[in-house]
Amino acid sequence: MQIRPTTEQDLTVFVDTMHAAFGRFPEGPADSEGMWWSALEMDRALLATTEQGAPIGTAAAYSFELTLPGEVVVPVAGVTTVGVLPTHRRQGVASAMMRHQLTEVRARGELAAVLLCTDARIYGRFGYGPATYMQRMTVQRHQAAFRPAHGPAAGSIEVLPIEVLRRAEGGEVLEAVYDRYRRAQPGALSRPHRWWAVGAGQPPVSRAPRYLAVHRDDAGVPDGYASYTVTESGTLTVDETIATDDAVATALARFVLDHDLVTQVVFKQVPLDHPLRWQLEDFRGVQLGDDGDWLWVRLLDVPRALTTRRWWADGELVLDVVDPFLGEHGRHLLTVRDGTADCVPTDRAPDLSLDVRDLGSIYLGGTAPSTLVRAGHVQAHHPGVVALADSLFRSNRAPHCLHWF
């Protein structure tokens, strides 16, 4: 087996091999504009081949920015299209590609790789841990009344089909609003301009027909949007709501919940701490479902990762971190003062012992260290350290990721 980088000339064989690995057929030719793979960066893609050159596996990465707690933005690799042909599975192909890819990511200076996990049994052994979570909310229209405290928000809402908005304003409105949102939201990923330009991804990035409710502030500047469809049966489904503050998010929620000829509203992929049920007269008017993980994080430079994000408590922890996949082991003294951290090697006795995948899960503040201690994943070496770890690793805002890749 060999692993080689790809070029633009490899796009067709790459797309065909990737689809074959998942038992699917491409929706169109590899060079078709608007397909989700239109945003692939072929200089960051890998092909696994036999010694004779026949393709047997694929892996790729996007160049994203990830927002850390404290509105710190860092470059990361967005791992995607990892697949092996059924004829060559369980022969070490995926492991070889993952090891090759992580070596390249580290060489580029990216402190982490992230992915959306297709099989939770696979990616933990490569060092990835679930770090953000999401759920679906469904509200029946007859239960959608807001409590009196939530009056109309300032600003205005304009509704346009997405193709009209793109013609009128060049597609820059959504791109600009999303960029403002993601820079303040821990766990959010950037959406590079190329994604919007070629319509790659899921709505509203893709060219799929959608209505856009665009919120503008009193000065007429767009500061939020909701992308949605309405079925003949009366279900309004919101693909995503992007808002630069809670008041705008509430205004957009009120708009879709007040939509005529609708019997129920479904909000896809919302954070676990979404406040809507607390805003309604009927607390039970929101039905929750389809909760699950979304963004998985894999740290590649532990000291740099820990000193880059912001912190909301002071304290000191000795972390003993093992990385079985890359064969690495380090003991780190983490010292946090006034929102910033120092992290240096130490030979002191550890406070917590954990796998790099578990460190990835707690890194953004979406998973409490105490949860992983109770689960038996993280070992706490003395009383009191768990409460300190929970206090240190919490975020000022629950991490959330909407971007699909």
UniProtKB/TrEMBL annotation:
Binding site for acetyl-CoA: 82-84, 90-95
A molecular function (GO) term: aminoglycoside N-acetyltransferase activity
Record: active site: 123 (proton donor), 405 (proton acceptor)
Domain of life assignment: Bacteria
Span of domain N-acetyltransferase: 1-153
CDD domains with a match to the protein in the record: NAT_SF (cd04301)
Example GO BP: aminoglycoside antibiotic catabolic process
InterPro entries per record: Acetyltransf_17 (IPR041380), Acetyltransferase_Eis (IPR051554), Acyl_CoA_acyltransferase (IPR016181), Eis_dom (IPR025559), GNAT_dom (IPR000182), NAcTrfase_Eis (IPR022902), SCP2_sterol-bd_dom_sf (IPR036527)
Keywords: Acyltransferase, Transferase
This protein's record includes keyword Transferase: yes
A Pfam family per the record: Acetyltransf_9
Annotated NCBIfam families: PRK01346.1-4
Quaternary structure note: Homohexamer; trimer of dimers.
Similarity comment: Belongs to the acetyltransferase Eis family.
Designated name of the protein: Putative acetyltransferase
